[in-house]
Design a protein that fits this description.
Blueprint: E1 7-10, E2 18-20, H1 22-34, E3 39-42, H2 46-53, E4 63-67, E5 72-81, H3 86-105, E6 109-120
Parallel strand pairs: 5-6
Antiparallel strand pairs: 1-2, 3-5, 4-5
């Protein structure tokens, strides 16, 4: 696993420097994305699925952070509920992540890419009342 460098928030502070690990950005983005109601789930990999079955919640599941020359790029892999407007929900997710990261870290994002990898079809059946 390649180790990414830490992100410097402020270098000219008289008290010292502030550095943030990319994993922290992943967790903040994951939590901010799950705050959007129309989101069903985030897509993870096999390892995150095993960890969740053992009882530990992984907040960075489905989030990939890249440090590029242009800035910070975030890719999210999401599953949405059936019947929602995909562009509107994706924009809500992007806005929530940008605002959360700006508030918590003072970092500006270059891009937030939302990849819709599935639609949840369960729970949308019409129930008959007797």
């Amino acid at each position: 696993m390649s180790e990414q460098p830490l992100l410097s928030v402020k270098e000219d502070s008289a008290l010292g420097s502030i550095e943030i690990a990319p994993e922290v950005i992943e967790v903040i983005a994951g939590i901010a994305a799950t705050e959007v109601e129309e989101l069903y789930a985030m897509r993870g990999n096999f390892a995150s699925g095993v960890v969740e079955r053992l009882g530990k919640k992984t907040h960075s599941k489905g989030v990939k952070v890249e440090l590029t020359e242009n800035g910070i790029s975030i890719d999210l892999y999401v599953i949405l509920n059936f019947g929602v407007s995909i562009p509107k929900v994706a924009q809500k997710i992007q806005t929530n992540i940008r605002e959360s990261l700006k508030y918590m870290t003072s970092l500006d994002l270059d891009e937030v890419n939302v990849h819709v990898v599935g639609i949840n079809m369960e729970g949308n059946e019409i129930s008959e009342q007797d």
